[in-house]
Design a protein that fits this description.
Chains A, B: Residues 12-72 form the HTH tetR-type domain. The structure is a homodimer of 199-residue chains. With 199 residues, chain A is mainly α. The first copy, chain A, has nine helices and no strands. The interface between A and B is large, with 86 and 86 residues.
DNA sequence: TGTATCGTTTAACAGTGTTAAATAATTTTA
DNA sequence: TAAAATTATTTAACACTGTTAAACGATACA
């Protein structure tokens, strides 16, 4: 009976619609705006129907992160294919990674646990700039006798901060590295950047 | 009347108790476990009382992030004071930053928007390892003819990933940098690491 | 002692994820 | 075609969330 196939096809379609609706809601109002009832509204059903397709809300998020990793991998492969030299390939791949993060911001957020809401408020705190100011001063001193421009110091600071915050984030959400590996990455990164600052 | 003072002191104390209770709950069960009613339970009151001290839940989070930035700044200053050379100071400060992140994990999370829950599940996805595998291969090729050990490649990979994921995260939650600054940081970081890999 | 103020709680509202039961629609069987 | 069985969908409910308004209790002031 071909009607079975048709029904299966429809089921697969609503399964897909649920994901699309979810992503649409998130893109419009952020991850906090995503609720089962809103998804149901979007696909013109009521909430419990969703549980016929996904066991719970977490399963929807999981499927979205899966899609995210697949899409990212595709982008990386495409970037690689455009070059022959490994150095060029690597550079292109990381730039593709960068582009993906902002083109598919919501996916990147759920893939790697980057919150945005909680830091909306931190921006209002004057205290949030204190750590930067403290480190900024030392970078300026380190560059002496050369007097660095704001732009120059800024780049140094963010290079530092990125590698350290990145390593911290990765370890917090992933807990994959050994302490030795972390210390190694940290040390090589820090001393490398310091050396590049000093000349 | 000194009783006014006593009452003010008590008020200040419960204001503080609310923060302590919140942090305790979060440390025990993560940020998802934090609710107004649980805080009330902890300080042996009912929920609406909390609104006499903080206008809403967000105000509590904001106060915790403020405490976090203050504590981090203190740690950075202490680290700086232990050395005289700017290079040594800088190294010590970033190591203090690192230590703070894990010693006060919950504070760091709310300060910089690092989620942990959503990536519990991503670990189960085989797809989550695809991007690493793709880039891993190119790093190995780039190191040829030297055949890198697993540990060596791992450190290179995480150095790359850290700086890029860090820069992405910072931009997502902060949106502070100009595109030119970002591109500059990205490019210098990438080419720098690539050069260090090639010899 | 009566009144006003303050501290605190109870009750409620709108929202969340999720489940069980009731209903509507469809398909299968007689 | 009519009845039965199965499937699709919804309604109602539960326990929870943040938050507010009203009621209650105690305390201080006249």
């Amino acid at each position: 009976m071909a009607s079975k196939d048709r029904i299966l096809r429809l089921k697969e379609e609503t399964r897909c619609n649920i994901l699309d609706a979810s992503l649409k809601i998130v893109k419009e109002g952020g991850w906090d705006a995503l609720s089962m009832r809103k998804i149901a509204d979007e696909i013109e059903y009521t909430a419990p129907i969703i549980y016929e397709y996904y066991s719970n809300k977490g399963a929807i998020l999981l499927e979205l992160t899966r899609k995210g990793f697949l899409l990212l991998s595709k982008k990386l492969e495409e970037a690689k294919a455009k070059h022959r030299l490994p150095a060029k390939q690597l550079e292109a791949m990381w730039l593709a990674y960068w582009d993906f993060a902002f083109a598919e911001k919501e996916l990147y957020q759920v893939m790697y646990g980057v919150e945005t809401t909680c830091c909306e408020m931190a921006k209002k705190l004057p205290e949030s700039e204190m750590p930067m100011d403290l480190i900024w001063d030392v970078i300026v001193e380190l560059m002496l006798p050369h007097v660095g421009t704001e732009e120059e110091v800024c780049i140094k600071y963010y290079t530092f901060w990125s590698v350290i915050h990145g390593l911290i984030s990765i370890n917090m959400v992933n807990r994959g590295n050994t302490d030795e590996t972390n210390q190694e990455v940290l040390k090589t990164a820090i001393t490398g950047i310091i050396r590049s600052i000093k000349g």
